[in-house]
Write a structure and sequence with these properties.
The chain is of the alpha/beta class and 277 residues long. It folds into two domains: 68 residues, Lrp/AsnC effector binding domain/regulation of amino acid metabolism (RAM) domain (Alpha-Beta Plaits, 2-Layer Sandwich); 155 residues, 3-Layer(aba) Sandwich (Rossmann fold). 30% of the residues lie in helices and 32% in strands. It has eight helices and 14 strands. It has a seven-stranded mixed β-sheet, sandwiched between helices. It has a four-stranded antiparallel β-sheet with strand order 2-3-1-4.
Length: 277
């Protein structure tokens, strides 16, 4: 299937990017990649209507807008062509099945690349993975919200987590995560298809959520209900400039901010739940 890639640059990213994502989602665009100053989004060529862009060009906040055709191709072959192993210092190497088995690190995770978010190449996944190695996860119950490929859930189990719940709203990611859990011989990860409603009634020592700013803000109320007293929450998937809004909203739900970690202008924030939340 051919796809159209729509590229939008904003005069001010906030709040215009979030508004644009909502608008494009209603028009049938299937996926979105946030850039530093804009947004790339994708829609099947068969349902794309170039006429819808005329009004968008005049919208407030948009500095530039253009699109191009991405012809049908073997996406898995394309991934294999460009997919390089990811090293998180000497702690972790994330490799694909077609990479050399001789790569050295304290932990090796094998991920079958299927265009799901979370192969480890993104700065936020790297930040999350590194932080997990600094924690004692032995016997802990972990939530990996928006699991993507399942890579962080797999790392959590290998670091000693007793149970890992790994939901994702995207069916493609759900199936890819199931495949990767099996590929790494994991037995304590429950992969699920669904949103934050899937975690109601559960409880966790650690919540990791590598999503985007708006979804995180929407989820904080549910996270506050299912985190155990004194538990930890790690969030990422956003730029350094988004920290203020996230810190404020998390605080409104009882979370105590502890510290921030950054990489290439992307950020990860660490929070603690009070003994009673």
């Amino acid at each position: 299937m051919n796809y159209i890639e729509l590229r939008v640059e904003f005069s001010e990213v906030h709040p215009w990017r979030d508004i644009m994502i909502a608008q494009l989602g209603e028009l049938g665009f299937e996926s979105f990649v946030e850039t530093k100053t804009g947004l790339n989004s994708y829609i099947p060529e068969t349902i794309f209507n170039a006429g819808i862009l005329d009004d968008m060009k005049e919208q407030q906040g948009i500095a530039n807008l253009d699109y191009s055709l991405i012809e049908d191709q073997n996406w898995n072959a394309k991934w294999e062509e460009n997919f390089e192993p990811v090293f998180v210092n000497d702690l972790l190497v994330i490799r694909a099945p077609f990479h050399s088995p001789d790569l050295k690190a304290k932990m090796v995770v094998t991920i079958q690349p299927q265009m799901s978010f979370g192969t480890g190449h993104h700065q936020t996944t790297w930040l999350m993975a590194k932080k997990l190695f600094e924690l004692d996860l032995t016997g802990k119950e972990v939530l990996d919200m928006g699991t993507g490929t399942g890579v962080l859930a797999i790392v959590a189990e290998k670091l000693g987590a007793k149970k890992v719940f790994a939901p994702d709203i995207d069916e493609w990611s759900f199936r890819n995560a199931l495949e990767n859990v099996a590929l790494n011989n994991c037995e304590k990860i429950e992969v699920a298809l669904g949103d934050d409603q899937t975690i109601k009634g559960r409880s966790f020592d650690l919540i990791i959520a590598n999503i985007n700013k708006n979804v995180l803000i929407q989820h904080f109320s549910v996270y506050s209900e299912c985190i155990k007293p004194g538990g930890m929450m790690l969030i990422s998937g956003f730029f350094e400039t988004d920290q203020g809004d996230l810190k404020k909203e998390a605080g409104n739900h009882g979370f105590i901010f502890e510290e921030t970690f950054t990489k290439d202008e992307w950020a990860m924030m660490q929070f603690k739940a009070p003994n009673r939340i």
